[in-house]
Structures are given as C-alpha cells and as structure tokens.
Amino acid sequence: MSTSFKKSDKELLDARNAIFKEYGIPGLERNGYAKSPFKSSWFGQYDTNIRGYSYELCRLADNGELHLVNATMVKDDKWIKINLNIFRLGEKLESLDQLGDCEGINFHLPPHESTSMRLRSDDYKGPPLFHMMFSPEYKLGNVGSESSFEKEVRKLANLVGKDMANIRSFESRWHELHQPRTTDVEGNVI
C-alpha cells in the first residue's frame, strides 16, 4: 500500500514565508536594508489580493541611490520571488525616515518596473538554457516525503540566506544591466 505525500499550498506558503523571515531579512539588514518606510509598502502581512506575503526593504546608498528589494510569496506557487531595483534620488536624504510621508507606489509602476531585476532569474550570464538547467533557484522542489521536504526547505533557506548576505553582488550586477532613473522621493521621474 503506497501513500502519497503531499504538502498543502498553505504549508508550502508558510514554509517559504518562514524562510524569508528567518534567513532573508537578517542578511539584508546586515547589509543596511530596513523595512520600507513608504505608506504603501507591505512587510509580512498576508495580502488577500495576491493570496500571499510581500516584503519591501530598502537602503540609502552613500552615492544617493535608493535600493529597493521586494520579496513575494504567493499561494499555489513554489517560488520566493525577490526583485531588486535601484533609483537615484534627486534630493539628498539623511535617513529612510524622511520617506515616511510618501506613498512609494510610483517606484513599482511604469517606467520603473522595466529596470526591476528578479534575482536568480534576470541576472544570469551565459546561455539561458545552461542557467535554467543548472543554476539554483528560490523554489521549493518536488518532494515525496517529509525528509525530502525538510531537505528542500534547508536548501532554499541556505540559498536565500547566502544571497541576501551577499546582496551587494546582485547590486553590482544590476548596475551592469541598468542605469538608475533619477526620481523624486515619491518615485516621479525627474
């Protein structure tokens, strides 16, 4: 008699959310990222519109750039989607708190979304086929038992933790691919 092992979509969602909270956020915080101060940003609340969780973290770089990292996990999906986008602010800010009165939604609308880089997806070098077949992804793989599920969770947690601790390499890759748009603090192109 064979029993089929299956995790529910909710269990998979909760596992990915826990991974990002426990491994992703601390790595980003060690690199100067903080919870986004924008009024419209999400930070771990369950969003019924996307049926999942969303996090937005940002940092002010010394050169006047605003670096935004968005992580999204949705139900019926096995991915943690992590995006990076970088903007040059038209005015110098002393701290992220100065953005607290801003909505920030414009940073996610056209034309800005065209420079958003999905980590481990949009930043590859070399032939796409090689990347798709051999590069690690922010995804829980197929599991057939509790032990294989735990192994996949550990593997994803290690990858997320390592990459968020080394987010500066992704920032460098973003700069190889894109030029930051100059915006005001609301995200309007200057």
Task: Walk me through what this model shows.
The protein is α+β, with helices and mostly antiparallel strands. Helix content is 32%, strand content 21%. Strands 1, 2, 3, 4, 5, 6 and 7 form a 7-stranded mixed β-sheet that branches. The chain is globular and about 60 Å long. The model has no long low-confidence stretch (mean pLDDT 90).
Can you lay out the helices and strands and say which pair or pack?
Blueprint: H1 9-30, E1 34-35, E2 43-47, E3 52-60, E4 65-74, E5 81-89, E6 117-118, H2 128-134, H3 146-165, H4 167-177, E7 181-183
Parallel strand pairs: 5-7
Antiparallel strand pairs: 1-3, 2-3, 3-4, 4-5, 5-6
Helix pairs in contact: 1-3
The ordered H/E elements are HEEEEEEHHHE
Q: Largest sheet at a glance?
A: 7 strands, mixed
Classification by helices and strands: alpha+beta
Approximately how much helix is present in the residues? 25-40%
The low-confidence runs, each spanning 5 or more residues with pLDDT under 50, are none
Strand content: 15-25%
Coarse morphology: globular
Give me the number of helical elements.
Answer: 4
Number of strands: 7
Rg, nearest Å = 18 Å
User: Please, what is the average pLDDT?
Assistant: 90
Question: What's this, in brief?
Answer:
With 190 residues, the protein is α+β, with helices and mostly antiparallel strands. 32% of the residues lie in helices and 21% in strands.
